[in-house]
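Fold this: DUF4159 domain-containing protein
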Amino acid sequence: MFSFAAPLALFGLISLPMIYWLLRVTPPRPREIVFPPTKILRELKPDEETPAKTPWWLMALRLALAAALIFAMAGPVWAPSGVVASAAPTLVILDDGWTAAPTWERRLAGAASIIESVARAGGPVAVALASESAAPVPGDGPRAMEKLRSARPKPFLPDRKAIGEQVSAFAHAHRTARIVWISDGVAQGDAAGFVRALKESGAAGVEIYVENHAPRALAAPTNDAAALSVDVLRIGDDASAVVDALDAKGRTVGRAAVDFGGARRVRAKIELPVELRNEVSHLRIEGENSAGAVALLDARSKVKRVALIGGGAADEAQPLLSPLYYLEKALAPFAQIRTARPGVVDPVQALLAEQPNIMGLADVGLAPGETFDAVSRFVEEGGTLIRFAGPRLANADDGLLPVRLRRNGRVLGGAMSWEEPKALAEFDATSPFFGLPASKDVTVQRQVLAEPDPGLADKTWARLSDGTPLVTAERRGKGLIVLFHVNADANWSNLPISGLFVDMLKRISAMAGESAPSSSERSGMVADPSAFAPMRLLDGFGALGAPGLSAQSIPPGFDGPASAEHPPGLYGSGEAFVAVQTLRPTDELSAFDFAGAGLSADVLRAGGQLDLRGPLLVFALAAFIADALIALALAGKLRLRPLGAATAALFCLLCATAMTTGETRAESAPKSAATQRDKDAALTARLAYVISGDAHVDEISRLGLEALTQALNARTSFAPGDPVGVDPAKDELAFYPLLYWPIVASAPQPPAKTVAKVTAYMKQGGTIIFDTRDALSQRVGGAPSPEAQWLRDLTKGLDIPPLEVTPRDHVITKTFYLLDGFVGRYANGETWVEALPPEPKDQAARPVRATDSVSAIVITSNDLASAWAHDKRGQPLFPLTPGGARQREFALRGGINLVMYTLTGNYKSDQVHVRDLLERLGQ
């Protein structure tokens, strides 16, 4: 793209004199003159000399020099984006929703190329964002670039209706306007209406560019009793995706790989223990940096542990008709149910020992005593108590109720009653059940009435059509007491067999574990927006941060969609917060058909512009020097052969020196660095881990081996130095007796040369612990996990012996501690070692199995390093499954055994120690 308007006049003034001067530079060559053989004529000298003809190649060189100078003054620029320069008023529209975030930098580079091209052509340019409604004002290039640099992707999909109106106004104000739309290619956000506005605007030209990236998104996250699941959406040709489950500190708790097949929406399931799933704070698509690729989980998403207790022996006689059966069916989809074992003397105390979040009492009276005090403490400390009325509770005097009850209750309908069964009234806006449909099919034939004490209305969550309470609640301490004034079976009401009953229990379960507000406080939530004020919000790239000034509070029951006023994120305070998702559960993601709309879209080739003035000036300088040398040579004042020889020799010397220096640096520098590292490793024994390339995994490996090193220093006579990370492709492995290799499925396979180096290390006595860290995702008889498949691919190139699950009598289980197995963050995975030859039949049983050498390979899936790792204060960094300090201690003991086994080999299997081992075992 060139602009010759400025230098045209200058070219006309200097081109001809410059060329004439260049032609005159060539020194004259004397023409041969024949003098007459007379003395006078011999003394005569010619008055003028005619120059010889300039060679054509020298003329071409000088013309090229002049052309380079002229073009350099024109300021030529090469634009890789392929955008044609135009001096017409240009409006650059940039989609700035979350769908543009993954390729945001390339979009900015493409827009910058367009702005620079218009500015060089001398035309006005304006920048507009899809989320804006203000009219774009055309200006110069720097002003447009300033606005472009300040743009950031939004965490929602903006509606393009407002910007479409501004485009039409811009085109009407500038008849020769040129519209450039850098689109995200997504149909959502009224793309069809925006295209109509572009076509009807009357602009002189409309250009559409799309980035070659199809966004992916998450929707409808659910954490129920079965698994943690979420919908994965795509609009491109991606065959698969990986969804990571992360806790509040950003640590990966679990992951799931999904295969789209031919679908655009698939369900990903992450199967983890409930304790780990309740630690998950958000889900994220691996490699997709956008708000749409993040699904948030709040307190309502945690799986609650519910303890249920029935009223008496009748429940056991007819279990399918008991209140517990109805409660179990209603709570099972979203909670873990705990019931007392048969024959337990005090089922309430037994279930409280399992630390439930919710306790449900179906027509159970609580008399003063130890049980009553235990339940009171449970509520005071934050537990939720749900009680259901019945014949026993109607005549009991119980203090763990939200309201005072009348004796016997009342019967609605039947031969002895004048009243008809009552239906439900609509839920108040202050009720947690607000938003649920009050089905008219639900009727109540009998209920326990509440005394009309002051404050009864504030404690009422649900009413019958005559205004009498159906559900009451009271906050007590940190916990909550909820009372259903009907039984939990179908004797008093058909509520327990309705879908509304499930939704009501789900709302109550979501409140468990929070500092639940009282009814009076809830009544102020609608008028006081701070109760649901923004706490932490997502930006367009999917990162949680502080809320901006434009974010507003959400009303109770808000279900989206996310917008500029209500961005996705966490709203509320403390533990009582709710999550607003980027996508609603029913939202879809689809690509817009530009061809069907009558427009064509080109791929945006973003790239910085290259200013050609520098290369042209360098060429002109080189041509000028070459011309000067040639002129001197033609005049006979320059000896080319000696100069050429000297120049060639100097050039060869410089090349040889540069090559020698480069080789010396390439060889000597790494050797000196490696020599120092190897010297340190040789002087001090150290544990080492293989650098995986994943910074998070490598940090866990480092912290885990540091903790194991501290334990070895404190408990054994082995005093290793600080652990180090090694790269098998570059570092010498012989100095490290034990390598811990965490498997990362996304890492590339090492080259054949590295695999051969690892094989040599194992054959020379080194031991490698391969940790796939996938014990929870392994399935017996199922397909291998990504980590297991990666390890299988690696071991194809390793010369490894047959393996077996570690026998209980293997020497590795008795090198320092007596162990039954090796656990880590998980306890269900198996540990594999080199298979030992069978023992002779006639040999007496021995406490440990003999082995001639140390197993060169140990394979586990229990994530050892995460169980060892702790912070500077000695506090563990990761929760264990199933958990407990005992599991962490045994994980550390297993690590010590592995190190001792590597260092001592079959020391413990020597016959000398059989008697000592038998004495320790008490045999």
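The radius of gyration is 41 Å. The chain has a mean pLDDT of 80.
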